[in-house]
């Protein structure tokens, strides 16, 4: 008996999950970080292989690789799990090429990414499904997921193990984020989490899922495939004079016919080959085969149609940052620093085509069918799109939303809130047009101006504004009768905002009243010499000593002085005039308040708390971003210019043919 007990104890110890400390990453072991003078900007890091929890008593013999980044100076209450797509593409793209704290330089060393999302939330990057990146099977058999239902099950097993090892993260507000094919992963995972939560009676064991952020997502193969040709025509990529136009038209018709004629009783395919062919035919139709065309300028870049590439790669080697990541992971000691055994993992590659070829999804329907239930449950969903993307373009996503039925209606209603979006570069005192926003019934669509398929890569600071919009760390302004949301280059979230305050961006009358009440309270605070207080959640504003927070507090004080001056006007004209002169002399900021002047009715009745206003410059400069598609076509050397620019109706549909 004693021998059996000792054997069981040894088995339990050997199979126990590693503790949090074992996943700690020492920054000085990663190339480049020792050269950073200000060590305070280096995030707290954890990384390594997390064994998946058993399912139905069976150990799946799979370990997922993760890399977590957190601010060392703040315990942020939001955890964002980031997933790249493919399928089969590593989430280290997100960590080292997009919105993570670091980028890889030409010497395969890490450098800081000024637009990192970890300054606003804890970031957890996970390689999945199995055999993606450094996530591996731990047994003798090779394992591949063949269906989204299986990859979802495996990810829930990862979460169970992860939260057991990092229990503090389980209490945080959870956001699932990602891009491209993760538009399939994310709704499936969110739906599974909600089912899990409903089955658990102990609330402390539930996951605090609050929202989804999906960038250039592939969610509806039908609608998004049918958008390729109309989108290409609207952007003058092709027109009726193109010799391949009739072939493209037939492919479009064939896709539409397959969708129209499918038999729902016979388990229709996840997607149709006829629809997938359209993009390849479009790339062939837009090749520049003239003799003086450089090899790397022959084909459209499907991820940013204003760029060119070699054929048939058409963007597969883009962006350049991706090409440096294998060299970083191959440097001696890097994998060991990340708690990875080099002998147990393959050489890092961005995407594993075996994962892609195995994920057939014969048992699952596309994630668009999951979205209505998630929205009706109250979950906030933000879909953001770089407008230069061809692969998952704006039109396809908007068509998908138009066909979507949630909240008792289909698509965005007439009362949907619409805003412009401005990015305020506080360091250089320049404002940039960032895009536009439409929001209705807890679904928000954001089009990011002059951005590609990988928005955080080419617009790092602006991309962090997507997170600011979710966190309500924005300023409302009005310009030419249009509501504009302003995000800034500040790395710190405004403490008056928080992901617990969810809902659509269009504020209801109730929200406006709440905002006016808060303005009144701010005025009272200014008379007593106090700092503004967040009345919605009862917490004081965080007090940091860095320059950005000092600017924010200065602006709040200036706003309260102005409110005080306006109050005094009603009592004494002479006193108010004096105060008015004083305020005008010492303050340029204008307090926006916590109201939406459009006062649109919010069907969900949820409240929105806006951040304080900030100083805008009159110099609205968009010239520092990428050029528009028309400009780039003429300015980029050896770019494709042979397609005639015949103007066609932008609402181009099949019947127009």
UniProtKB/TrEMBL annotation:
A cellular component term, taken from the record's GO annotations: trans-Golgi network
Catalytic activity line of the entry: Preferential release of a C-terminal arginine or lysine residue
A Pfam family per the record: Peptidase_S10
Recorded superkingdom: Eukaryota
Keyword annotations of the record: Apoptosis, Carboxypeptidase, Glycoprotein, Golgi apparatus, Hydrolase, Membrane, Protease, Signal, Transmembrane, Transmembrane helix
Major enzyme class: hydrolase
Stretches with biased composition (Basic and acidic residues): 527-552, 609-621
Its EC number(s): 3.4.16.6
Location(s) in or outside the cell: Golgi apparatus, trans-Golgi network membrane
Family named by the database record: Belongs to the peptidase S10 family.
Name of the protein in question: Pheromone-processing carboxypeptidase KEX1
């Amino acid at each position: 008996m004693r021998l059996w007990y000792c054997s069981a104890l040894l088995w339990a110890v050997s199979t126990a999950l590693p503790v949090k400390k074992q996943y700690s990453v020492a920054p000085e072991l990663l190339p480049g970080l020792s050269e950073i003078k200000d060590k305070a900007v280096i995030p707290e890091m954890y990384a390594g292989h997390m064994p998946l929890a058993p399912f139905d008593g069976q150990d799946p013999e799979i370990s997922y690789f993760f890399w977590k980044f957190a601010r060392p100076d703040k315990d942020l209450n939001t955890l964002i799990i980031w997933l790249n797509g493919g399928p089969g593409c590593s989430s280290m793209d997100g960590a080292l090429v997009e919105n993570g704290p670091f980028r890889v330089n030409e010497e395969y060393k890490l450098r800081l990414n000024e637009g990192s999302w970890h300054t606003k939330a804890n970031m957890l990057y996970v390689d999945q499904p199995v055999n993606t990146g450094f996530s591996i099977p731990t047994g003798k058999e090779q394992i591949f997921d063949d269906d989204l239902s299986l990859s979802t099950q495996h990810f829930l097993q990862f979460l169970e193990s992860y939260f057991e090892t990092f229990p503090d993260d389980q209490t945080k507000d959870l956001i699932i984020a990602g891009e491209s094919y993760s538009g399939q992963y994310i709704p499936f995972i969110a739906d599974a989490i909600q089912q899990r939560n409903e089955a658990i009676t102990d609330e402390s064991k539930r996951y605090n899922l609050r929202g989804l952020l999906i960038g250039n997502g592939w969610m509806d193969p039908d609608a998004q495939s049918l958008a390729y040709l109309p989108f290409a025509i609207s952007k003058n990529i092709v027109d009726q004079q193109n010799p391949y136009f009739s072939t493209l038209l037939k492919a479009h018709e064939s896709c539409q016919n397959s969708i129209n004629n499918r038999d729902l009783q016979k388990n229709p395919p996840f997607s149709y080959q006829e629809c997938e062919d359209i993009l390849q035919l479009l790339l062939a139709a837009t090749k520049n085969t003239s003799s003086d065309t450089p090899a790397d300028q022959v084909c459209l870049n499907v991820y940013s149609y204003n760029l060119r590439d070699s054929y048939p790669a058409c963007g597969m080697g883009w962006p350049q940052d991706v090409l440096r990541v294998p060299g970083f992971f191959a440097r001696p000691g890097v994998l060991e620093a990340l708690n990875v055994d080099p002998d147990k993992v393959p050489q890092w590659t961005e995407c594993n085509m075996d994962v892609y070829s195995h994920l057939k999804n014969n048992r699952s329907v596309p994630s668009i069918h999951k979205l209505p239930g998630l929205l009706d449950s109250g979950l906030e969903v933000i879909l953001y799109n770089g407008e230069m993307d061809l692969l998952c373009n704006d039109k396809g996503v908007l068509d998908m939303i138009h066909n979507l039925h949630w909240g008792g209606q289909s698509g965005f209603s007439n009362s949907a809130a619409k805003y412009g979006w401005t990015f305020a570069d506080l360091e250089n005192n320049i404002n940039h047009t960032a895009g536009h926003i439409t929001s209705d019934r807890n679904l928000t669509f954001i089009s990011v101006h002059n951005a590609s398929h990988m928005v955080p890569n080419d617009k790092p600071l602006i991309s962090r504004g997507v997170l600011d919009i979710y966190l309500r760390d924005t300023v409302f302004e009005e310009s030419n009768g249009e509501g504009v949301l302003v995000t800034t280059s500040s790395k710190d979230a405004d403490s008056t905002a928080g992901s617990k305050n969810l809902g659509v961006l269009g504020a209801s009358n109730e929200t406006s009243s709440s905002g006016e009440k808060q303005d009144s309270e701010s005025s009272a605070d200014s008379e007593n010499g106090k700092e503004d207080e967040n009345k919605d959640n009862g917490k004081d504003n965080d007090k940091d000593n860095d320059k950005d927070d000092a600017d924010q507090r200065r602006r709040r004080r200036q706003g309260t002085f102005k409110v005080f001056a306006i109050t005094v006007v009603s009592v004494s004209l002479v006193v108010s005039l004096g105060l008015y002169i004083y305020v005008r002399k010492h303050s340029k900021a204008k307090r926006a308040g916590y109201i939406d002047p459009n006062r649109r009715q919010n069907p969900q009745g949820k409240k929105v708390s806006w951040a304080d206003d900030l100083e805008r410059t009159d110099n609205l400069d968009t010239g520092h971003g990428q050029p528009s598609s028309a400009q780039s076509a003429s300015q980029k050397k050896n770019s494709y210019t042979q397609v005639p620019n015949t103007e066609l109706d932008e609402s181009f549909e099949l019947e127009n043919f």
